Amino acid sequence: MAEKVLMKGNEAIAEAAIMAGCRHYFGYPITPQTEVAAYMAKRMPKIEGGVFLQAESEIAAINMVYGVAATGKRVMTSSSSPGISLKSEGISYIAGCDLPALIVNVQRGGPGLGGIQPSQSDYFQATRGSGHGDYHLIVLAPASVQEMASLTFKAFNLADKYRMPTMILADGTMGQMMEPVSLDMGEVETYEKPWALTGTNMEREHNIVNSLSLVPEELEKFNFERFEKYKAIEENEALCEEFMMEDAEICIAAFGIASRVSKNAVIEARKQGIKAGLIRPITLWPFPKKAFAKAADKVKSFISVEMSMGQMIEDVKLATECKKPVTLCNRAGGMIPSPEQVLEAIIEANKGGDK
Amino acid sequence: MSKSCSILFAGFGGQGVLFAGKFLAYKGLDEGKQVSWLPSYGPEMRGGTANCSVIISDDPIGSPIISEPDILVAMNLPSLDKYESTVKKGGKIIIDSSLIGRKVERDDVEVFYVPATELANKNNTPKLANMIIAGKLMKECDVIAYDHMREALAHVVSARHQDMLEVNLGAIEIGYNA
């Protein structure tokens, strides 16, 4: 196994992307993800075929991603919340053209320009398709610097496999913190890309990459086909971590940094004799519905711990078909819940008894 | 018994609190411990406040955020004012007494007054008060050992500043013996 090094989450994303074969990075600086761009600026020029380009705006950057993605090359951009809103028009086009690309969102508090401290309030934006039209991104939510690397690597493979954009949904804490990382990423999966715009060399028909479709019957067909693909992804790619769930009576749902805080609270609750457990979605879309559905038959209640005004809680309720009560334990605007706050919510939920 | 230590290293931007924290994290990593390093980030720059949370542990680390540190390092008065009350009962506070005039008010923590800035100036390394404090911290923190310092430092001293390795080692030693 590769030696462990200390890296910031943002740097781990950048290095893993390069290891995954990404040679094209387009971005525009914004706190708290700027280290991704800074790392790429340093590394890409030293790699054969490596391109780092700081665009004049987020909108320009995502459209450069759109262009490279159409050629079948691995490409990415990264930003933070307000920048992702700007990029969302382009993301919709990329999804509409069925192109693989990676978009990284290191979230900060919002709405509007908001602040620069960590947040998870772009959950809806990420999981419901950030721009206009019917589409999804595969959304991966790392909870350690190691996962910032490994899920970035995985995101490129998934993007190629399903021919669609993928997203890393992190937050300011995950981006800024350092932890030991092993950069042992495994094999890069390669996929045939007969659709890519690589020049016909006068030897084949033109490939066309386009999201415009003025005949509604055709456009409807494309949408139905795309959702067949989404169904397969929901079936095969949902991922989560279950922590102390075997005999849990109170189940916490939390992702990213909120899951780390929640883990501390679960351990403390167990010390106090309360059977708490945690389901941590690793993929936010597809949401790990089965794990929650299974838990709904066993636990007394759920607590959704989020750094937002309550967004994932809707998916928890849908996945559990509201069989058990789901409460919200949250902070917002760049604040992070403390283990004590989560523990209190667990104690409160435990008092609820078998109601 | 498995051990764990959470350290909040706080001071002015420019005093090297993030650097010192990174050194401690690498020292822990070299010893095969679990570590996390989380900086405050924001519109801070030289003169503003900065801090980092470092956890060194035998067990996997849950939250990297420290609400009750085992050890607080305060390298300026605003940091002491802000974080004195958060230190765990029975915890430790290490203070740069050259820069902080007042005493710690709590009597349920162990306090070490180190005139780090003065010692750094005397040693002709005025920028290394951070490493003097780090040396003192290593003496008072039983989770990491006072050995193989050069190797740990080599991770954090950048390639073009390798000539600074010796003076950093010297500063740590001054702090350890202070």
Number of helices of chain B: 6
Distance between the termini of chain A: 50 Å
Q: Quick one: biggest sheet of chain A?
A: 7 strands, mixed
Report the CATH architecture of chain B: 3-Layer(aba) Sandwich
What is the SS-derived class of chain B? alpha/beta
pLDDT < 50 stretches of chain A: none
Number of strands of chain B: 6
Class by SSE composition of chain A: alpha/beta
**Shape descriptor of chain A:** globular
Q: Low-confidence stretches of chain B at least 5 residues in length (pLDDT < 50)?
A: none
User: What is the chain-wise order of helices and strands of chain B?
Assistant: EHEEEHEEHHHH
Strand % of chain A is 15-25%
According to CATH, the fold-level topology of chain B is: Pyruvate-ferredoxin Oxidoreductase, domain 3
Give helix % range of chain A.
40-55%
CATH architectural grouping of the largest domain in chain A? 3-Layer(aba) Sandwich
Largest interface: A-B, 23 and 20 residues
What summary fits the major beta sheet of chain B? Answer: 6 strands, mixed
User: Order of strands across the biggest sheet of chain B?
Assistant: 2-3-1-4-5-6
Task: Walk me through what this model shows.
- The complex is a heterodimer of chains A (355) and B (178).
- In chain A, helix 1 (9-19) packs parallel to helix 6 (145-162), helix 9 (256-271) crosses helix 12 and helix 10 (289-296) crosses helix 11.
- A 7-stranded mixed beta sheet of chain A has the order 3-2-4-5-7-6-12, sandwiched between helices. Chain A has a 5-stranded mixed beta sheet with strand order 9-11-10-13-14, sandwiched between helices.
- Chain A has helices at 9-19, 34-43, 58-70, 81-96, 123-127, 145-162, 172-176, 216-236, 256-271, 289-296, 312-319, 339-351; strands spanning 4-8, 24-27, 51-54, 75-79, 101-107, 138-140, 165-171, 178-182, 240-243, 250-253, 276-281, 283-285, 301-306, 326-330.
- Chain A is of the alpha/beta class and 355 residues long.
- Chain A starts with a strand and ends with a helix.
- In chain A, helix 4 (81-96) links the parallel strand 4 (75-79) and strand 5 (101-107).
- Chain B has helices spanning 17-30, 77-83, 116-122, 129-140, 149-156, 165-177; strands spanning 4-12, 34-39, 49-57, 71-74, 92-96, 110-114.
- Chain B has a 6-stranded mixed beta sheet, with helices on both faces.
- Chain B is of the alpha/beta class and 178 residues long.
- Chain B is globular, with a radius of gyration of 15 Å.
- The longest helix of chain B has 14 residues, at 17-30.
